[in-house]
Structure formats: C-alpha cells, structure tokens
Amino acid sequence: MPSLKLENVAKHFGGLKAVDKVSMEVPPGEITGLIGPNGAGKSTVVNMISGVLALTEGDITVDGVSVATDRADIVARKGVARTFQNIRLLPEATVLDNVMIGFHRREEAGVLAQMLGLPAARRDTKRFEEKAWDLLRRFRMEDFAEYEAGNLAYGHQRRVEMMRAIAAEPDIVLLDEPVAGMNDVESDELATIFRELADSGMGLLLIEHNVGFVTRLCKKVYVLDSGRMIASGDPEAVVRDPQVVAAYIGTSGH
Amino acid sequence: EDYKVVILQSLTGGAAFIGKNVADGAVLAAEELNEKGFFGEGNQMVFSVEDDATDRTQTLSLITRLAADEDVLMVMGPTSGSVAMAGANVANEREFPVMTTTNSMEVVENGPWSFIMTQPASITMPFIADYTAETLGLERCAIIGVKDNEAYVALQRMYESLITEAGVEIVSQDGVALADSDFSALATKIATSDQDCVFIGTPAAQGANIILQLKQAGLDPSTPILGHNAFASPTFIEKGGAAVEDVYLIGAWVPGGDDDFSSAFAESFEAKMGFPADEWNAMGYSGMQVVAHAVRDAAEAGNLTRDGVRQALGEQKDIPVVVGTHTYSYDEERVPYFGMKVLQVKDGAFTVAPE
Amino acid sequence: MIQFYYAYQPIIDFFLLSVGFGYSQQIALRAGVFSIATAGFAALGSYCVAILATKTGVPIFLTVILGTALAAAVGGLLALPLARLRGAFQAIATLAFVQIILSLLLYGEGFTGGALGIVGIPREVNTWILLIVVGLTMYVMWNIGRSGMGRVFNALRQEESVASSLGVNIGKYHIIAFIISGAVGGLFGGLQSLYTFQIEPHNYGFAFIVNVLTVVILGGRTTLLGPIMGALIMAILPEIARPLAEYRQAVNGVILILVITFLPNGVGDEIVFWFRRRKQARQQQHRASEKEARDAVS
Amino acid sequence: MLSQQILNGLVSGSVYALFSLGFTLIFGVQKLLNFAHGATFMAGAFIAYYCTISGLPFLLAIGFSMLATGLIAILIDLIAFRTLRNRGNAEFPALVSSIGVDLILVSIAQQVSKTQVLNFPFGTFPIKFYDLFGLRISLLQIVILAVVAVLVAALIFYLRKTTFGRQVRAVATNERAAALLGVNAQSVYLQTFFIAGALAGLAGVLIGLLFNSIQFLMGEPYMLRAFVVVVIGGLGSVQGAIVASLLLGVTQSLAVAYLPSGLTDAIIFGLLFLVLLVRPNGLFGDINAVAGGTRQ
Amino acid sequence: MTTLTISDLHVSYGGVKALRGVSMHVEQGEMVALIGSNGAGKSTLLNALSNVVKRKSGEIVFEGRETKGMSPHSVSRAGLLHVPEGRQVLGDMSVYENLQVGLIARGKRNTIYTLDHVYELFPVLEERRDQIAGTLSGGQQQMLAIGRALMGGPHLLLLDEPSLGLSPLITDQVFDALKKLNAEGLTVLLVEQNAHRALEATSRAYVLDRGQIAFEGASEELAGNQAVIDSYLGA
Ligand SMILES: Nc1ncnc2c1ncn2[C@@H]1O[C@H](COP(=O)(O)OP(=O)(O)OP(=O)(O)O)[C@@H](O)[C@H]1O
Ligand SMILES: Nc1ncnc2c1ncn2[C@@H]1O[C@H](COP(=O)(O)OP(=O)(O)OP(=O)(O)O)[C@@H](O)[C@H]1O
Ligand SMILES: CC(C)C[C@H](N)C(=O)O
Ligand SMILES: [Mg+2]
Ligand SMILES: [Mg+2]
C-alpha cells in the first residue's frame, strides 16, 4: 500500500502564507493526526493534496509519484479520497445514491455499455448497491437509506460524507473534522470504524479538534500553527509540548 | 343549404397584422353576401373564424381536424410564410381545398388543392421596378429589406433582379428583422452614402419608421423612396406623417375606394369596424368574393364537394373585387391576377402616381 | 379511434417530436449543463437531412444518420470551449451558438435557401416511425438513468466538487452530455424536416428555445417521464383554450403559472417522486414495525 | 460617419442599459431570469402611449407609466416568483412561470392594440437637431443620454450608500441567513422588482419615442439583448451591465455600418462567444471563479 | 422574568415528526443548555423558535409575545437572534460587511454590543475585516457568525453548536465569552454536542431525545448523572 508524502509544501493567498513549507507523511495502515488552531492551514493542506488548490511551492507524492499538479479527479483515481469540512452532499439525492456515486472509480462498464444497458453496466450497479448497503449498516444509517440527504440531521450528514469517501476503498483518506457535531458516544462508534479501516491497510489523515479523540486514535500527530509545522510525533508528547499548549490547547487541559 | 367555409388566419402572433385584417374583410364580405341572398333561396354560407396563431404546429393540427370534418368545404387561409406552406402540404395530402393568403408560388406548386390569394412577386413587382427604371429613370438604388420573412425576401429578390436587368445599380443591400425598431445606424449609413433612390421592402409601419429615421439622419429629402404593396395601408401615412410624403409604392387598394363597389366597401367597413379599411382588409373582402363565387358555382353545377369547389375555384374569372383593376381571375396555372397601381403619397393621402 | 387519430394525427406527431427535442434538452440539464443548444442541433440535423434529401441522391435513411452524426460531432466540439463556463454563462454561450447557426443559415442562401428555407423535402416520416424512434431514445435515456453515467450526471448537477473529489472527469462527462444532446437534437431535427416538408431558419429561433425549455421544465428535469408530460401539456394546451380565441395566449400563460407553481419540479418528476416517496414511506413503516416487534421480544 | 455611428450606438446602448439594469438587479438578488421583463418594458410604452393620447401631459404620462410598470413588476414577483422562491430552488421553475406572465401581458397588449403598431403622436416630443462637432444629434438623444446617466448614478448611489445595497447582497447570498439577521427579504424583493419594473417601463417609453414604434412584441428582441448584456457584464453586476450595454450598442451600430448585413448577427454573437472564452464570468465577474476540477 | 416559554411544541417535516410536544422555558439572564444525540431535534427546535420552520402546533412566547405568524426577520428584530447550524456566513461578502448586515436586526433598540465589543471578543475578525467570509477557516467563520448575531443586539441568543469546528483554545475563549456575556445580562439558549462543556457553562439543562424532553434540571446535577448522559446522548 502506498504512502502519501508532502515535501516543503506551501500555499500563499496574496500576502498570507496559509501553509508554509510543510512536510509530512501519511503512511498506510495508520491513522495520522493533523491538528492546529483555527486558520492554521489544515484544510488548505487537504485541498492541496486533493487537487482543489494549486501549490505555491513543494511537492506531494503518492507512492513516490508526484500528484502536485494533477486535477482533482486524477488524484482521486490515484487512490486519495476526502471529506469536506463544510459538508457537501448531493442534497436532492437519497442517502443511498449519495453513497453509490462514491463507487465511480470502480466502474467497469464503458459509456456505450451503459447507454445500451448491457449486462456489464447492470452488474456494476448491482455490485455497488450491495456494497453500499454494507456501508450503510456499518455506519448504522440503513434506516435513512431512502432519505433525501439534504434533510438529514448534521451528524448524519457527516456519516454520509464518510461513507461516500471510503466507498471506492481508497488507499488514503483525508478526513476533515469527521466527528464535528457528534457527542462522545457517537464519536467512539466512528473511532472503531476508523481503526478497522487502518487495520485493513488504508492510510488515514485525521483533522480534528477533539484532542482526546486524536490522541487515542493516532499513531503520529502533526501540529500546524499559522501555516507552519510547530510540532510532530507521538500524540501524548505533542499535546504536552508547551508551544502546542499555548497555541492550540489552552490551559484548561482538555 | 349551408355552405361551410372556415376562415383560418393568423389572428395572433407575428403575421397577425395581415391575418387579422384579412379575416375582418372576409367576414364582412360573407355577411354581406348572405344578407344579399347571393347563394340563392334558402342557401347561405356558414363560416367560422379560426386562428393559425402564426404557428406551424397549430395550423397543421387545425387543418387536419377541419379536413376530418366532412361538412367543411374549404378553408380560406392560412395566412403566410411557413405556416401557409405547411397548411398547403396537409391540404394536398388530405385533398382539402385551401386558399392561403400568401403570394408564394411554392404553395401553388405544392399540389392542386392549394391556392394563393395574392399575386406573386412576378406579377406585382414589375409595376414598381419599371417605374423605378423607366418612369423615374433612376440609376443607383439602396435596398432595405426584411431578412427573416420569406414573403418579403421573395419580393425584394424579384425587385432586385428586375431593376438590375433594367440597368439600375444596387449600391447597398441591408436586411432588418421584423421585430426591429432601431434603425439609427442603418439610417446614418444610407443617409451618408451615395445613391439616387432607396427601395424599402418592409411592412407598412416598419417602413414608415425607417423612412422617418432616414430623414432624421439627414437623407437628402429629394431622394425618391419606393416600396411595394405592403405600404398601401393607412398605417403607413399615419406612422410616417410628413416624412412619407412623396413615397412611391404599389397597391391594389386605393384607400377610400376608386369605384362604386370599392367605395361602398370602404364605407361599410368603416361603419362596422370604426376604422378605415386597409389593403389587407380589402384583400380579405375580395378573396371572400372569389370563394363565394366558387362555392356557388360548384353548387350550381351540382358538384358541391371539395373536389367540385376546388375545380370551381381554379376556374374563377373576372370576379368583381375591390382591389386592383377590380376584377379577379385565376389563370391556367392557378395564378391569381387582379392588377396593381403605382401610387404616391401626396398631401397625406395615396394618389395614383404620375405616369 | 381511427377517426380520432385521423383528426388529431399532427398533434400526436408534434408531441412525439417535442418529446425527442425534450430529451435532447433534458440530458444537458441533467448533467448540470445549462445548455440551450438543442435548437442549434435540431437546425443542423434538419438542414443536413433537407439538403441531402433534396439535392443529392443519398438514401433517406442515411441522411438522418449523417444529420445525427453531424449534430453529435458539433455538440462534442462545442463542449470543449464551453468547459470553462458554468450556469447562465453556458446558457448565453449556447445561445450565441444557436444565433450563429441561424444567421449562417440565413446568409448561406445558395446552400440553405436563406430566409426562404428549403421546400419540397420528401415526407418520409410518419407517426409510427416517430413512435419507434422515441421509444429507442427513451430506452437509451432509461439506461443512462440507471447506470453510472446517470449517477455521475446527478452528482455534476448537484455538487460538482464532490464529483471531482470522487474521480469524475468533469470535462469528459460534459462532452458526453453534449454529444448525446447533439445526437438526439440532430436526430429529431432530421425527422422533423422529413415530416414537415419545408424548413426555414426561423423554425429554430427564440421560440423554439423557449418551447423546448418549457417542455422540460414543465415536465420535469430528471425523470424519463418529464419530457413526455411536458410535451403532452404543450401539445394540448393550445387546444384546451381554443374556444377562448384571442385570449388563448393569456389562458396558456395562466395555466403555465398554475402548473409550475404547484408542481415546481415539473409534472412528470412530481409524479415519479410521489410514487417514490410512497414506496419509501411504506418501507419505513415496515422497518419501524419490525423494530417494534424486535423490541417487544427483547 | 464613424463618430456619428458611435453616437448612435451610445444612445441605443444607454437605453439597453436601462432595460438591462432591472434584469440584472432581479438576477442579482435572487438568481432568477425574469422572462417577463420584456413584457414589462412593452407595458411601459403602452401605458405612456394611452395616457398621452387621452390627454395627459407627456411628463406625467411617463411618471404614471413608471409607477405602473413598477407595480406590474411587483405583481410579477407575487404571481410568478414568490411561491416558488419560498419553496426553494426556483431557478428553472421561475423561468416557466415568468414565461407565463409574459404570455399574459403580451396577449393583453395584443388585444388592446389590435396587433397594430402604435406611435406617440407627432409633436409629443419636439424634434430638434443640433450640430455638435459635425455630429447630428437630436434633442431627444441628448435627453435620453442625460436621463440614463442620472438614473444610473442614482441607482448606484442607492445601492452603495444606503443599507439597501447590503441587504440586497445579503439576500442574494443566503436568504435564510439574512432573515435570521433581521433582513426583510420580502421587502428587498419588492423594492428590486419595483425599481426594475420602473426602469424597464421608462426604457419602453424612450424606445417607443426614439424609434417611433410601440408594438406588443417589442419586448422580445430586447430580452435577447438583455441576456447578452447581463451575462457579458458579469451576472448581477450593475457596472458590468452598463458597460456591456454601451458596448453592445456601439458594436451593433458599427456592424450595421461596416459589415455585410446578413452576417451582423453571426459576428456579434461570435464576438460574444469569444468574450466568454476569455472571461468566463463576464467582464466584471471574478475571472478565477470557474469550477471544473482544476486547481485554483 | 421569563424570556422564553415553549409549550407543547410539535414540528413535522412531511411525515417525519421531529418534535413531539416540547415544553420548556428560559428565564431572563439565564444560560440554558439543550443537549441530545444526532437527529434528536435540537436544530429543529431552534429553527422553530426563529420561525424558520413552521410549527405544527404549540405556543412560543418570547418576552411576553406569541411569535406565531411572525416572519423570521421580525423575530430577530424583536431581539431573538439565532446563530444557525453550519454558520451560514454570507460567503460572498467581506467580514466587515457581514458584521454590518448584523446591525439590521438591532434597528433602534439599545444594546451594549458594539463593533469594538465584537472585535475584542474575536480579534481575528478585526484582522481579517476585508477578507471574503467564504474563504475564512471553519473556526473563523464560527466566530463571525456569533459576532454578527451580537451586532444585532440580542435579548436572547440561540446558539446551535457554537463549538463546532473550534480549536480547544478558541472553544475556551468562546465559552468564556459566553459566560461573560451572560454575566453582563445576555440570555442564552445553547445547543451543544459537547455535553460536558455545555453543562459546565450553564445553570440549567434540557435533554432532548427523539423529539421529546427526556430530562430537565440543574446542569450540575445532570453532569453528575452519568446514567442519564449515557442513555440519552448515546446512539
Ligand atoms: N481563498 C482564500 N483566500 C484568502 N485566504 C484564504 C483562502 N482560503 C483560506 N484562507 C486563509 O488561509 C488560512 C488557513 O485556512 P484553513 O481553512 O486551511 O484553516 P484550518 O486550519 O482548516 O482551520 P479550521 O480549523 O478553522 O478549519 C486561514 O487564515 C484562511 O482565512
Ligand atoms: N428539512 C427536513 N426535511 C425532513 N426531515 C428533516 C429536515 N430537517 C431535519 N429533519 C429530520 O428531523 C430530525 C431532527 O433533525 P435535527 O436537525 O433537528 O436534529 P439535531 O438534533 O439538530 O441533530 P444534530 O446533532 O445531528 O445536528 C432528523 O431525523 C432529521 O432527519
Ligand atoms: C414512469 C417512468 C417513465 C419514469 C422513470 N421511472 C424515471 O424515473 O425515469
Ligand atoms: Mg479547516
Ligand atoms: Mg443540529
């Protein structure tokens, strides 16, 4: 399984250095954390990896091959999936259809076969439907399968985002605050799923403000502040780093 | 007996300025003829007015439906353009006589069941083309036409080829759209270019407006302006006012009438409608005379069928009408003839132009 | 029945033609492309067929294929520059495309007959042929709706960035949508010219654009039933209000407003959605009662 | 002749601007294309015409017509847009309902005018020509340029210097959020529709006067131009609409004057196409804001 | 004095019953928490209070006035300001303009909250006053949404998950700010997933479960009752 690497990646918006010479790695089979204060540049990192934003400097590689200038869909085809911090669903489509679109990369039937309704196209649809239901059950969302996604409660919308991202079994998943808006019990359910995904060999990048959650799950944590990497390493150690405490965690000891 | 005829014209949409007026004239004629007992004791024409909406689809479905109603002998209409053409096509398919308002020979050529009511360009345009080249002796003409209506384009093409043959040079050719009203750029262009006449082949109101804008743009007031029979409408003078003074045109209808029959029509039309008749009202009135004669002839020949009416219509000769030289005839090719006059606007009225 | 068909046949035929144009328009909207190029595609198809059929000896069947291919190819090419545009900007660019086609048709008099158009096109198409072609078109649309392509189109329409984050090549699918829209538009344009005997540029102008849009919006932008219902309403609307003579237009306006206000997704889509929702409600009820039963046991 | 043609183009363009501003405003605030805008414009000319021939002084007729078209526009909003808007996602349905309103208005006008082309009686406005640096300019053209300039300035002032402009933008961006912040979206809609209608009505009167022609179908060609202007200018951009209107007016004048007449449309729309390729969001739109999976 | 009284409130979306007879009250100067799991109906309740969604039945009385039939903007102009779920900043407008739009709800009412006050609470908003709000980071947008509501001079502030997406430090600051605002007299109804945080900051709390109030009482008492928390905030 491939590994995702960032080398000296920077993104400037006009004069603002939103991300400033950041290097990090998301290895397979592990959950890697990315934390930092609001506006530190975490989502910007995700946007650069996933092909939404162009890099100002640096390089991003998957399995040693650069993806830094690839279009978003090409990055996705190379096995990198993501969720969005500001939830983006197909609001009018059902939950099931929202998940189904996640399998796009795995389609085998060609355009003509699809238009003519050849068996190859039907097989695709059938296979995806089965897998989608598996996912729905795993995320305990099967009761909502026929719901219009736009009408779901916030926490449920988050789950749809995640199911869609992992549907096509990507090598790397970038999760931008996946458990925001969930309480501890709900977050723990998802933590189990994340761990299972990592165990199956996927590399996860987890952005999250719930520090307890991050320390429990991650093998390694990177900390961004004002675009720069101020710490990285073992989660327990990182969250005690005075610089991190001052910039991010605060004194109330969370 | 009842003779059932349907007057199907563009009462709405782009060609309504023709169709509505033709229908008004035709209705008046049919009412008068019934009143006069034209069809003989106990007989009368039963007519209804339908709208082709200047829409091909609606026309097709209406004609088909009317064709399916065996009581209907014939249709007077539809009005013009592709609507008339499409109408002619179903009519021939369903063997159902139609007398379309248009002057397009293609309608006639489409088959024996489709007729045209107005004279084709090859008959009308020589009147004004000869007047341009010979009577007025003009040499360099600027042409303004309508680019998006095939009937007007056909007239313009005919005029162009006739004057070119007669040795008149065409210095410029411009097309406007029927819906345009902003001619400022065109007017400036023509007013500042070099020609000794301007021919305008547009509907009356639009033509008047173009002339107004030409004059406002500084066109030499002595430049002769010519047009075709579309200008023969009170609208032209009403819209153009002083600007259209001296304009030459051709017309089948001399407003107010120029013999007993036409004067009587002018009077009764204004009495009924509250406004004076124009060329299209007169055409509708005249066309209905021809239809009525054809229907009566068929009845008298004991062949009151669609085929009988069709044959009778094609054989109509010298029917008294209110337009042109006051008689209306179809020739062997079923081309209508009733003559034209070259007119000129003088003192805010149409008069016969000096020879 | 035969009598009815005899009297109303043109309405039926025009309904079928509108359904075809409707699908050409709908496939673009489904893919999130606000294209109004259908008028241009139809013009291309219909002129291609008309010119070949009246001026050359090409077999009629082949002229239709060529017209379809031409419109599809132009559709594909049009998609390339349009790739950078979205929403109303696409609409205006496609409007420009239609206007350019129309003015070239007016201008190329020697070839296209200018404003006079082309007359004397053989009438080779009848209701049955139209029915078969509409049927085939529906079959393809139905397959598209149930396949990955349909899912991609849905995604592109609702949230493009999501689609591309999942590996969808947006440009490619826009090209596909334009090619299908062009092919269907060109196909029915060709059939139309073999049906109406005479064509002119004016037939594919602003009124055409507005009409096809109305068919699809009024009928429904996403389901197979949409264009059918839209075309049906547009075909019978003039007939309903006919007795009102000159106020007909106004009555048509009132009907359009009422229908779309109460069924904003379009009549066809609302019908399909209604059935879907009913099915969902039943499933939900079923699951709920299952759950209760289980709870009672435990 | 070149400068004369540019002047002609500027006058036509400034009337396009009046027409298009309302269209752009409505689009700007609710992202809806109002197909009935052309009919409102037509109604303006009709109302002023009937007021004038029934003896009302011309200025009063104009004022009355603007008031009436403003109210007509409000009515259009209530009938065609309001319910759809409240249900959300009105973009396409509103197209159809506004076409419905257009049909109704045009049909009424057709009945009233009996399909005839109308014109203001001669002498409604004095026909006077001036010679200005060799240019022929009429009093009416001068008045139109001045009136349009003043109105445009007033509108920009109203949008920029009062809270109205901010409310418009807030509603345009997110109606629900705006409502939570106390913005009365309904009143914003009513105001924009009134302004749009009144401007369109005035444009109708001016066009009717300038080109001596009032007709029930007169709105249609202006709608087509308004689409072009509004998009080229950048959707919802007031400055964009003005610049694009003037550009379109001048381009059309020059095309008529210097290009083969059959090809003017092809050339103008070809240019339009090119402009869009170079500036995919119009002249005054954000050049970078193009989606499509490419990195920004 | 009672700022807000809700009695027997029912809300449905089509066939889905989201609220089934909710009754609660908020006294003036109080800060009250509303907690519950995903889909419990918390956001629906706040939306019903600001009249963004229509209630099916029940009464809502704000400062002595039944709000039934009032439009959302009148509700906010009356001083009931709602910071919605998902922030809903005006994405095309600058930070400053967003705050200025916030002023509209204030009208001519007196308030202690000024632009300086907001800048003091959230200094980053002053730093970024000209940035387009849609490009702010998630947390920055949350601050803007709260700041903007304060500009409207609230008598009652409804907050839907204000800590969502905020870093721990900023969350602390926001809760400190809320406590401070509350101490200054602002009445707050707070929806939070972060139950511990919410209970620690408030004096009273309600737990919503599948559209019904399952528990109400002093926050302190609830915080100590792990059983209640587990059974209602779990799954
Ligand atoms: N398009 C843009 N233009 C200007 N500034 C931007 C743009 N996009 C992001 N920024 C700025 O870049 C910085 C980094 O933003 P980013 O969204 O990556 O933060 P983040 O770490 O994800 O924060 P949060 O935890 O609040 O989500 C912020 O200050 C933000 O305002
Ligand atoms: N517009 C809508 N249409 C249909 N159902 C809806 C709609 N909005 C919410 N619901 C349903 O109402 C229920 C309550 O939703 P609500 O958003 O109020 O939950 P919540 O308590 O805020 O959850 P969360 O903590 O995830 O935000 C959910 O089952 C949801 O699916
Ligand atoms: C009734 C069918 C023709 C419609 C079809 N189920 C669809 O949604 O596309
Ligand atoms: Mg972020
Ligand atoms: Mg919620």
Automatic annotation (TrEMBL), chain A:
<dbReference type="GO" id="GO:0005524">
    <property type="term" value="F:ATP binding"/>
</dbReference>
<dbReference type="InterPro" id="IPR051120">
    <property type="entry name" value="ABC_AA/LPS_Transport"/>
</dbReference>
<dbReference type="InterPro" id="IPR027417">
    <property type="entry name" value="P-loop_NTPase"/>
</dbReference>
<dbReference type="GO" id="GO:0016887">
    <property type="term" value="F:ATP hydrolysis activity"/>
</dbReference>
<keyword id="KW-0547">Nucleotide-binding</keyword>
<dbReference type="InterPro" id="IPR032823">
    <property type="entry name" value="BCA_ABC_TP_C"/>
</dbReference>
<dbReference type="InterPro" id="IPR003439">
    <property type="entry name" value="ABC_transporter-like_ATP-bd"/>
</dbReference>
<dbReference type="Pfam" id="PF00005">
    <property type="entry name" value="ABC_tran"/>
</dbReference>
<dbReference type="Pfam" id="PF12399">
    <property type="entry name" value="BCA_ABC_TP_C"/>
</dbReference>
<keyword id="KW-0067">ATP-binding</keyword>
<dbReference type="InterPro" id="IPR003593">
    <property type="entry name" value="AAA+_ATPase"/>
</dbReference>
<keyword id="KW-0813">Transport</keyword>
From TrEMBL, chain C:
<dbReference type="InterPro" id="IPR001851">
    <property type="entry name" value="ABC_transp_permease"/>
</dbReference>
<feature type="transmembrane region" description="Helical">
    <location>
        <begin position="31"/>
        <end position="54"/>
    </location>
</feature>
<feature type="transmembrane region" description="Helical">
    <location>
        <begin position="6"/>
        <end position="24"/>
    </location>
</feature>
<feature type="transmembrane region" description="Helical">
    <location>
        <begin position="253"/>
        <end position="275"/>
    </location>
</feature>
<dbReference type="Pfam" id="PF02653">
    <property type="entry name" value="BPD_transp_2"/>
</dbReference>
<keyword id="KW-1003">Cell membrane</keyword>
<feature type="transmembrane region" description="Helical">
    <location>
        <begin position="60"/>
        <end position="80"/>
    </location>
</feature>
<dbReference type="InterPro" id="IPR043428">
    <property type="entry name" value="LivM-like"/>
</dbReference>
<dbReference type="GO" id="GO:0005886">
    <property type="term" value="C:plasma membrane"/>
</dbReference>
<protein>
    <submittedName>
        <fullName>Probable amino-acid transmembrane abc transporter protein</fullName>
    </submittedName>
</protein>
<feature type="transmembrane region" description="Helical">
    <location>
        <begin position="201"/>
        <end position="219"/>
    </location>
</feature>
<keyword id="KW-0472">Membrane</keyword>
UniProtKB/TrEMBL annotation, chain D:
<feature type="transmembrane region" description="Helical">
    <location>
        <begin position="223"/>
        <end position="248"/>
    </location>
</feature>
<feature type="transmembrane region" description="Helical">
    <location>
        <begin position="56"/>
        <end position="80"/>
    </location>
</feature>
<dbReference type="GO" id="GO:0022857">
    <property type="term" value="F:transmembrane transporter activity"/>
</dbReference>
<dbReference type="GO" id="GO:0006865">
    <property type="term" value="P:amino acid transport"/>
</dbReference>
<feature type="transmembrane region" description="Helical">
    <location>
        <begin position="6"/>
        <end position="27"/>
    </location>
</feature>
<keyword id="KW-0029">Amino-acid transport</keyword>
<feature type="transmembrane region" description="Helical">
    <location>
        <begin position="255"/>
        <end position="278"/>
    </location>
</feature>
<keyword id="KW-0813">Transport</keyword>
<feature type="transmembrane region" description="Helical">
    <location>
        <begin position="188"/>
        <end position="211"/>
    </location>
</feature>
<keyword id="KW-1003">Cell membrane</keyword>
<keyword id="KW-0449">Lipoprotein</keyword>
<dbReference type="GO" id="GO:0005886">
    <property type="term" value="C:plasma membrane"/>
</dbReference>
From TrEMBL, chain E:
<dbReference type="GO" id="GO:0015807">
    <property type="term" value="P:L-amino acid transport"/>
</dbReference>
<keyword id="KW-0067">ATP-binding</keyword>
<dbReference type="InterPro" id="IPR027417">
    <property type="entry name" value="P-loop_NTPase"/>
</dbReference>
<dbReference type="InterPro" id="IPR052156">
    <property type="entry name" value="BCAA_Transport_ATP-bd_LivF"/>
</dbReference>
<dbReference type="InterPro" id="IPR017871">
    <property type="entry name" value="ABC_transporter-like_CS"/>
</dbReference>
<dbReference type="InterPro" id="IPR003593">
    <property type="entry name" value="AAA+_ATPase"/>
</dbReference>
<comment type="similarity">
    <text>Belongs to the ABC transporter superfamily.</text>
</comment>
<protein>
    <submittedName>
        <fullName>Branched-chain amino acid ABC transporter, ATP-binding protein</fullName>
    </submittedName>
</protein>
<dbReference type="GO" id="GO:0015658">
    <property type="term" value="F:branched-chain amino acid transmembrane transporter activity"/>
</dbReference>
<keyword id="KW-0547">Nucleotide-binding</keyword>
<dbReference type="InterPro" id="IPR003439">
    <property type="entry name" value="ABC_transporter-like_ATP-bd"/>
</dbReference>
<feature type="domain" description="ABC transporter">
    <location>
        <begin position="4"/>
        <end position="235"/>
    </location>
</feature>
